[in-house]
Design brief:
- This protein is of the alpha/beta class.
- Helix content is 38%, strand content 17%.
- Strands 3-2-1-4-5-6-11 form a seven-stranded parallel beta sheet, with helices on both faces. Strands 7-10 form a two-stranded parallel sheet. A two-stranded parallel sheet has the order 8-13.
- Helix 1 (24-35) packs across helix 7.
- Bound molecules: nicotinamide-adenine-dinucleotide.
- Nicotinamide-adenine-dinucleotide binds next to helix 1, helix 4, strand 5 and strand 7.
Length: 335
């Protein structure tokens, strides 16, 4: 279960930049990159990322942390490092404002980080001659009316500034590939969950919020009837897809869904979390949130084909790990 399938073994980049590497998905990606022998630079402004997420690499020369904002450009903050170590083989671009809801009220700020910031990353990659960019896109790019589970070639008509900026960024990656020959892979993540996902914000992923509330015995609040569905994919599986996509010989030019294909309703999720945690927390209901998708799940045939991607951690197992982390602060992440 926890072994990487042999078909996903790949050449990992020896020198890799991870924007947003102090965040939830970013820090798991750093862990796997270093485990596979890469030298990693994390560039993060610590707006939501945390130094604790990288604590295990604090004194390790294979991980360097640079505090900077991608929207201000990457050349200056990275100049001395790259003068010493050379050009990056790969950039994993994860830094972003990550809330759909927040973007609706703060469109200009979302554009600044998620669209302009991505353009800064790509322009840096072009000028510096970086080997490849792996970009974190999102299921939020799809039209609300697409068939579920959803294939990558379905219509993209995002409903939020967040989705529009992710889709615009995807177009920018295609432009840099077509015109400047910059290699890239676009990964459209569905609902990622696991340890280190910050439950402290109302905009966090539903699992991190439910896990924290169950641990504290506080109500798990469901917006709407709870029959809306999501495709929950565990963070170590996502990080493995990212690391595999760093290989310049794999999935170049591809757009790939990263999920599990499984739809889980928010009602099922809440009951599973209450049962697994042994919590007495009640489940309560409030008015539905505007603009929320009714159903979401991925078709992952392309990622299977291009990356050998296979989700290996079930929702139940991933929840048990996440709940252990939420309850004890123990990072029981042996996956
Ligand atoms: N978590 C999910 O379910 C999910 C789903 C789809 C897509 N994504 C995408 O995956 C990526 C990682 O998301 P996450 O869930 O780990 O969120 P996160 O908030 O934990 O990580 C984002 C990281 O980017 C950093 N950051 C934000 N703005 C920055 C800036 N201007 N300059 C430099 N660093 C900046 C933050 O400090 C943080 O470390 C994002 O691009 C997000 O849009 C996540």
């Amino acid at each position: 279960m926890n072994q990487m399938p042999s078909s996903t073994r790949s050449r990992s980049p020896s020198f890799c930049l991870v924007t947003g590497g102090a965040g939830f998905i970013g820090s798991h990606t750093v862990d796997q990159l270093v485990a596979q022998g890469s030298d990693v630079v994390v560039l993060d402004d610590f707006s939501t990322g945390r130094r604790e997420n990288l604590a295990q690499w604090q004194a390790d020369p294979r991980v360097t942390i640079v505090e900077a904002n991608i929207s201000d450009g990457l050349s200056a903050p990275l100049a001395s490092l790259t003068a010493e170590k050379g050009t990056f083989d790969c950039i994993v671009h994860l830094a972003a404002q990550t809330s759909v809801e927040w973007s609706v009220q703060n469109a200009l700020d979302d554009i600044q980080v998620n669209y302009v910031g991505t353009a800064q990353v790509l322009e840096y990659a072009r000028i510096a001659g970086v080997g490849k960019v792996v970009f974190a896109s999102s299921s939020a790019v799809y039209d609300e009316n697409v068939p579920v589970p959803t294939r990558e070639d379905e219509a993209c008509q995002p409903l939020s500034p967040y989705g529009i900026d992710k889709f615009g960024a995807e177009l920018f990656l295609k432009y840099y590939a077509d015109v400047h020959g910059l290699r890239s892979t676009i990964l459209r993540f569905f609902n990622v969950f696991g340890p280190r996902q910050d439950p402290g914000s109302p905009y966090s992923g539903v699992i991190s919020i439910f896990a924290e509330r169950a641990a504290a015995g506080q109500p798990l609040v469901i917006y709407g009837d709870g029959n809306q569905t999501r495709d929950f994919v565990f963070v170590s599986d996502v990080a493995r897809a990212i690391v595999t996509a760093c290989d310049p010989d794999r999935a170049t030019g591809a757009i790939l869904n990263i999920g599990t294909t499984l739809e889980t309703s928010i009602n099922e999720l809440a009951h599973l979390i209450v049962n697994l945690s042994g919590s007495s927390a009640p489940i309560t209901y409030e008015a539905p949130r505007a603009g929320e998708l009714r159903r979401s799940a991925a078709v992952i045939d392309r990622a299977r084909e291009a990356l050998g991607f296979e989700p290996t951690v079930s929702l139940r197992d991933g929840l048990a790990i996440t709940l252990g982390w939420a309850q004890d602060g123990v990072q029981s992440e042996a996956v």
